[in-house]
Design brief:
- It comes from Monosiga brevicollis (Choanoflagellate).
- The protein is an alpha/beta fold and 416 residues long.
- 42% of the residues lie in helices and 11% in strands.
- It has 15 helices and eight strands.
- It has an eight-stranded mixed β-sheet with strand order 1-2-4-3-5-8-6-7, with helices on both faces.
- It starts with a helix and ends in a 14-residue tail after the last helix.
- The structure holds zinc ion.
- The site of zinc ion (ZN) has 5 residues, from loops.
């Protein structure tokens, strides 16, 4: 974000300031090899082929349409052939969304791998490692995936060769377009900025598609997949929470899940650690209007995570592609790391689930819908804010220290 420059640009116009570097094409040292990476059309073909080949495991859910009329499918991974529900008698409902940001290809690839692994495991011997993992997964979870939420942005990236492109067809950053501190700090009202949030909350059909899916079905866990580093964030990331230290209702549960997931992952792949923490503690910038803040803040699901599944932490060139994605030959290894972490996260959710579930459903039964917090209305008086600023600063510093953070280089680009 370039605060003073942005204000100047808004007053003087684009002819003075020119196009923001954020959304301009850069000289790339690495580009995707589409013999290995999927492009926007092969993503959809692959999903279709996998669903068609599945006997009972993969099912299309609701199909949505992008601004330019491309398909945005949702797919359910749900056993329909007799695996009983887990120890708590109810499978945990999880929604995983990838491809919100056009330039982040690797999360989309991971979701496709998840679908193809599920398909292979459907026919694997029950005592094989894959068979056992899938049996555990299916007895504890119903997974729904939206593999590519922003197909127009991806199509633009492919036709323009601008691998820095993050927005949708209208240049809107979908992860700033949701109705939670919309237009707050970390979002931009300048269409030339990569964090352009749109004209109003949920102005974009892709964001509305996600909202509709969340309200159409009932989910327990929302996972927003990104890339650019190896971190997992808990809500909230918005400007108000950045200043006030506001925390979601199930913050303690999510911290427990996070700690368990980090421990499980690092016990398996210690040299590919993830960092984790509340977004407003871990990131160097606030991000207002994000999907996971919206889902958790509006209580569309009790638990929400944003997972950055890959990052090139030694990146030095001007290009964008290799900040967010591995070269094609390294894609399988990157997906294996992401796979281990996502399994660790789901295992952690399952281990800590019972207490969250009971509290959540009790609350859902008793809470009138209009009793939810209005983010835009949440404004502490300035005097109180000023008095509390020093105390909060100290608390935030102490909280930073209290979260498990293996050392990783600082992130210098916008990832979420
Ligand atoms: Zn992202």
């Amino acid at each position: 974000m370039r605060g003073p420059l942005l204000v100047l640009c808004l007053f003087l116009g684009q002819w003075v300031c020119g196009e923001s570097r954020d959304v301009q094409r850069q000289r790339e040292t690495v580009t995707p090899d589409y013999a290995i990476y999927h492009n926007v059309s092969s993503v959809l073909h692959e999903i279709d082929a996998l669903v068609s080949r599945s006997e009972s495991l993969l099912h299309y859910g609701k199909l949505y349409e992008s601004t330019q009329g491309r398909l945005i499918p949702s797919v359910k991974i749900r056993n329909a052939s007799g695996i009983s529900a887990g120890p708590h008698g109810r499978r945990i409902q999880v929604l995983i969304v990838a491809g919100e940001h056009a330039r982040e290809l690797v999360p989309v690839e991971w979701v496709l791998t998840l679908l193809s692994t599920a398909l292979v495991a459907e026919h694997a011997p029950q005592d094989s490692a894959r068979g056992k993992l899938m049996r555990w997964l299916l007895s504890n979870f119903d997974l729904t995936v939206i593999p590519l939420l922003n197909p127009d942005g991806r199509a633009h990236l492919e036709s323009s060769l601008n691998y820095c492109w993050r927005g949708n067809a209208r240049g809107v950053d979908l992860n700033r377009n949701f109705d939670w501190d919309f237009g707050g700090k970390g979002a931009s009202l300048n269409p030339l900025d990569e964090e352009y949030c749109g004209t109003h909350a949920l102005s974009e059909v892709e964001a509305r598609a996600l909202r509709d899916h969340l309200t159409r079905e009932s989910f327990d866990v929302f996972i927003s997949l990104h890339s650019g580093t190896r971190q997992i964030y808990l809500p909230y990331s918005d400007g108000i929470s950045w200043s006030s230290g506001r925390q979601p209702r199930f913050h303690t549960d999510m911290i427990s899940i996070l700690r368990t997931a980090l421990r499980l992952h690092s016990s398996q792949i210690p040299d590919r650690s993830f960092q984790g923490g509340a977004a407003h503690q871990l990131l160097d910038y606030p991000a207002s209007g994000t999907s996971f803040d919206y889902v958790v803040g509006r209580e569309l699901a009790p638990l929400g995570f944003a997972v950055e599944v890959y990052g090139n932490l030694s990146h030095k060139s001007d290009g964008c592609f290799d900040i967010f994605n591995p070269v094609a030959t390294e894609l399988p290894a990157a997906l294996a790391v992401a796979d281990t972490f996502m399994v660790a996260l789901l295992k952690a959710v399952q281990m800590h689930w019972t207490s969250t579930l009971n509290t959540w459903h009790e609350r859902q039964r008793s809470l009138p819908l209009d009793n939810q917090i209005e983010a835009s209305a949440y404004q502490a008086p300035w005097t109180i804010l000023l008095i509390c600023a020093a105390i909060l600063g100290g608390l935030v510093f102490m909280q930073r220290k209290s979260v498990l953070l293996p050392h990783l280089p600082p992130v210098t680009h916008t990832v979420m």
